[in-house]
Automatic annotation (TrEMBL):
<feature type="transmembrane region" description="Helical">
    <location>
        <begin position="291"/>
        <end position="308"/>
    </location>
</feature>
<dbReference type="InterPro" id="IPR029020">
    <property type="entry name" value="Ammonium/urea_transptr"/>
</dbReference>
<feature type="transmembrane region" description="Helical">
    <location>
        <begin position="380"/>
        <end position="400"/>
    </location>
</feature>
<keyword id="KW-0813">Transport</keyword>
<keyword id="KW-0812">Transmembrane</keyword>
<keyword id="KW-0924">Ammonia transport</keyword>
<dbReference type="InterPro" id="IPR024041">
    <property type="entry name" value="NH4_transpt_AmtB-like_dom"/>
</dbReference>
<dbReference type="GO" id="GO:0097272">
    <property type="term" value="P:ammonium homeostasis"/>
</dbReference>
<feature type="transmembrane region" description="Helical">
    <location>
        <begin position="189"/>
        <end position="209"/>
    </location>
</feature>
<keyword id="KW-1133">Transmembrane helix</keyword>
<feature type="transmembrane region" description="Helical">
    <location>
        <begin position="358"/>
        <end position="374"/>
    </location>
</feature>
<dbReference type="InterPro" id="IPR001905">
    <property type="entry name" value="Ammonium_transpt"/>
</dbReference>
<feature type="transmembrane region" description="Helical">
    <location>
        <begin position="216"/>
        <end position="237"/>
    </location>
</feature>
<feature type="signal peptide">
    <location>
        <begin position="1"/>
        <end position="31"/>
    </location>
</feature>
<keyword id="KW-0472">Membrane</keyword>
<feature type="transmembrane region" description="Helical">
    <location>
        <begin position="328"/>
        <end position="351"/>
    </location>
</feature>
<feature type="transmembrane region" description="Helical">
    <location>
        <begin position="412"/>
        <end position="430"/>
    </location>
</feature>
């Protein structure tokens, strides 16, 4: 009887423990004038949406200023930026549906409910822990260890709040400002938390079919609450990698490589699915049960990427910002297309047939590779970056197979390997940032920062996965795996025919 209660009790204990830490930090934050700094994601404003009461803010942008001091144009810019960032946040959030469909389609039908549950809980657990812990760690107003670990804080402060003083409307909390009109703190949080959920859900596909649901929830909580925000702060929070000149516009490394290398650690710790390799080491493909779902998922992800990359421009009002935002969409599209074509041709050459799954992963590889540099490369360079990303996806899949590392959806080739390529490609093709004198120096910075972030994700998550394995809480039993995680972990079927005929859909 006790064995049925151990998994949920341990999972709830860990998740509630992290939320308890976050609530404790909230009491610390509430004693400050403002909670953690309101923040950002990309080159456009690395330190993010900083406190609206910055001394440098002009009249109309400070707490206590008259609302009428804010010009109509500035107010309109703030509104445009806020609403467009909100739409981009929704697009990135919708990518969760794309990941779910890709993972479901490329895995056995008997694990469908489990995969969907993991994707739902990635978002649900991630939102709360990012609010309570992660957001402040990733975009700190101050540092515990300068450039390495941010100060604690929880929740977000509302900006653009009005009060009446002596018959005049004044800003009780001024609109967010960062070298010009910015978006609301609320829109910024929604945008950032969608990125955090993306980093977490990448791992779901790599560990599909054999990981305990409770163990996955523990992983998801730690990644979104601690691991991703800490390494993210090193770049987007103004940390030590940012100070070196590291560039990662929308997260090839900061988001995708973190998820990819965490997934690689999980796949290694878990070992292959039952039947994936014979006793003498021969590879046995375990094809997905619904390629239509997988294709739909990739199309959803492609559309969602227009929130991910163009949205990372962060400020959209004005002619220059509007053009930059749409140009980013162009380079993103070009790279995805090149990745699909090259992956299909590479797979066709190696395996003798045009494999749709290779093309689908090639789309994603091209998207991941361009994410770090979509704002700073030419259209021709976008083709090259996406094409190499598409080839790397196929090479990565073959490499994992040779090493007997079972990654059912190709999460590491797409997000890990292509994330690394995106970081390096930024140094090769991207415009030199201020303070960097040569392409060689830029490549060196990109390579070092990429190595640091990938090692952080792989080592920390590998430590967690092997700890869970040591206490017998990582992988389901062979009998549960053979029956399918839908039944063994959730007690339900995804398809009615399974319950009627005992598993008609393979």
């Amino acid at each position: 009887m006790l064995q049925h209660f151990r998994a949920p009790v341990l999972t709830v204990f860990v998740c509630l423990g992290m939320m308890g830490v976050g609530l404790t930090l909230a009491s610390v934050a509430s004693a400050q004038d403002e909670p953690a700094a309101v923040t950002e994601v990309a080159e456009a404003t690395d330190a993010g949406a900083v406190d609206a009461a910055e001394d440098a803010a002009p009249v109309g942008w400070n707490a206590g200023d008259k609302v009428s001091d804010l010009s109509y144009d500035d107010s309109n810019d703030y509104a445009i930026n806020t609403l467009i960032m909100f739409v981009c946040a929704v697009l990135v959030l919708f990518m969760q549906a794309g990941f779910a469909m890709v993972e479901v389609g490329m895995n056995s039908a008997k694990n469908t409910v489990n995969i969907l549950a993991k994707n739902v809980m990635d978002l649900a657990v991630g939102v709360l822990l990012f609010l309570l812990i992660g957001y402040a760690l990733m975009y700190p107003g101050s540092w515990i260890a300068e450039g390495y670990l941010g100060s604690p804080g929880s929740f977000i402060s509302r900006d653009a709040q009005i009060e009446e003083v002596n018959g005049e409307e004044v800003w009780a909390s001024a609109p967010a400002y960062s070298d010009g009109a910015y978006a609301s703190n609320s829109a910024d949080f929604l945008f950032q938390v969608a990125f955090a959920a993306t980093a977490a859900t990448i791992v779901s596909g790599a560990v599909a079919g054999r990981m305990k649901f409770g163990a996955y929830l523990i992983y998801s909580a730690l990644l979104t609450g601690l691991i991703y925000p800490i390494s993210g702060s090193w770049k987007w929070g103004g940390g030590f990698l940012d100070a070196m000149g590291f560039q990662d516009f929308a997260g090839s490394v900061v988001v995708h490589a973190v998820g990819g290398f965490a997934g690689l650690a999980g796949a290694i710790a878990l070992g292959p699915r039952l039947g994936r390799y014979t006793a003498d080491g021969k590879s046995v493909p375990l094809p997905g049960h619904n390629i239509a779902f997988a294709a739909l998922g990739v199309f959803i992800l492609w559309v969602g990427w227009y929130g991910f990359n163009p949205g990372s421009q962060l400020t959209y009002s004005g002619a220059a910002n509007a053009e930059a935002t749409t140009y980013i969409a162009v380079t993103t599209t070009i790279s995805a297309a090149a990745g699909a074509i090259v992956a299909l041709l590479t797979g066709w050459t190696l395996f003798g047939k045009p494999d749709l799954t290779m093309a689908l992963n090639g789309v994603l590889g091209g998207l991941v590779a361009i994410t770090a540099n979509c704002d700073r490369v030419s259209q021709v360079e976008s083709i090259v970056i996406g094409a190499i990303g598409g080839a790397l996806v196929v090479i990565g899949i073959v490499l994992l197979d040779k090493l007997h590392i079972d990654d059912p959806v190709g999460a590491w080739p797409v997000h890990g390997l292509c994330g690394v390529w995106g970081g390096i490609a930024t140094g090769i093709f991207g415009d030199l940032p201020d303070g960097v004198e040569s392409v060689g120096a830029f490549i060196g910075i990109q390579a070092f920062a990429t190595l640091v972030i990938c090692a952080w994700a792989f080592i920390t998550m590998g430590g967690l996965f092997f700890l869970l394995k040591a206490i017998g809480f990582l992988r389901v039993s062979p009998e549960e795996e053979a029956a399918g995680l839908d039944i063994s972990e959730h007690g339900m079927h995804a398809y009615p025919s399974d319950a009627i005929s005992g598993g008609a859909i393979a």
